[in-house]
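Encode chain A's predicted structure.
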Amino acid sequence: MTAPVAALAAAVAAGAAAVAFDHRDEPGGLAATAFMCAIAWWSAALFGEAVASTEAGKLFWLNVQYPATAVTPVAAVAFVASYLGYDAWVSRRRILALAAPLAALTLLSWTNDYHGLVRTGTDLAAYGSETVLVRELGPAWWVGWLYSQVLLVATFATLAYGVYDSAPAFRVSAGLLLVGAGAPWAAQFVVLGGGPAFRPELLFVLTGVAFTVAVRRGRTLGVTPVARRVTLEAVPDPIVVVDRSGRIADTNPAARAWLGDDVAVGAAVADALASAPKVRAAYRRGEAPDEPLSVEVDGETRFVSLSAVPLPTLGNRSQGTVLLLRDVTDSERNRRDLEVANDRLQTLTHALAHDLKNPLSVADGFTDLATAGDEAAIERVEGAHDRMFEIVDETLAAVDHPDPDADAEPFSFAALAEDAWRTAETGTATLTVAGDGSYAADEAAVRSVLENLFRNAAVHAGTDPTVTAVALDGGFAVVDDGPGIPPAERDRVFERGYTTADDGTGIGLASVATLAASHGWTVVAGRGRGEADAALDGETAAVGDGAAFVVRFGARPVEEVAAPVVADPDDLVAPSEALAAEE
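Encoded structure for chain A:
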């Protein structure tokens, strides 16, 4: 009975080896091929032992089996490691180290006549219609057997975990591998325990059949539990597995690349996330934040959405948590860019409305006089209407050409200041122009800044104020003779919505700051010094000692540009960093 069953086992194992070889490029394919080839070798040699009629012949075929007995457990370890995604643990050097004791046992078996360490004696005995080789086993055999059992127990335990950890669709095929490979191993204990005297290796038939069915029907080597591990490694987003004690149980390459080498297996997660304090804080709170978290990666700010997924419980005990950090950098930047664009659109809308209000108020104020035939009033109304059209055209040009300074033509500051005064709502205020200069800047934007500063002075500088427009080296200033800016309020003057007037809108100075920032200019506020001792035409001019606003065009320090007209250049106030960042 032994010979035909052994022959059948050899044939089935050879067929299974061929199937495995067809899948050699899949995870565990080469190890499975080696495993099934070793079983085919073992079964074929067992067939030779069964048909041999002499003691010497049976010993010869027994020794032929030993290389297969050395390869089988090591190949099983390599296969299960690759199958479950832990092939990185089984390097070529470790495989050779695992095989070395069994290779030594093979050599000892071949040279047993000289030392008797593997077999202390042999004899032939009749068993039914067959003649079997009875061996008295030596100490080397028992050491090798125990070593093989350690490898096989570790292999079957790991494979059993793989069956448990597999998706339900793959548990059947993984279970077939476990049953098929474990049957001969379990049978040896039945024989050693005094059960029926037969060769457990005959159950290799089940191993080959189970393996073939698992691969052919269940596509075991094509889609296996290794998919979980491969997916973990391939996912581009950071993944950190935390055990129930708060230590890292596993990570993927993305987590190590994003969070640094401190994110290592065994490290306390609270310490490992030190390089990502916002992620660590969210983990400690035990809740996923509503907003993306910023993480510094190689000097670049990235954004992640954090999800904490609890692992399945074992009994009543939690097994830990999986932290999923999804890279949302692109969408977060797009969202922020959209917010900035919306803010700019809102600012542009308010600025356009505010700029139109100046000439519209002028036109409204002179309409009655123009209707009565006042030529000067008619000119003021016509000029106001022309200015409204200009503002609309300038706004459209600013949208279509965001860098109007690039092709700017030089203009006369004094002439532009006079034009801006005529279309600004200035009430009973009086304009004085000190000095003149030719500037190569966006003329329309400068005029809009002047109109807003003139109107601001007319509203806040008191009754019948005098407003002075001063041409400076590298910019210009608008100074009034009113009470000035209260020291406690200076830091807020450029904020949108801030005003001290009962009917103020809080838009004028915010529009000035927005327009200046969009052109790369600098605008500051301070207190006038009472005179301008360095006007561009070389003459000293009287200016007010109230509010002073200075606009700088170039790279010259703004304090130097403002020094001729402000009382204390060190006390100048600029728009807040938040406003500058917004623009």
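The first strand starts at residue 119 and ends at 127.
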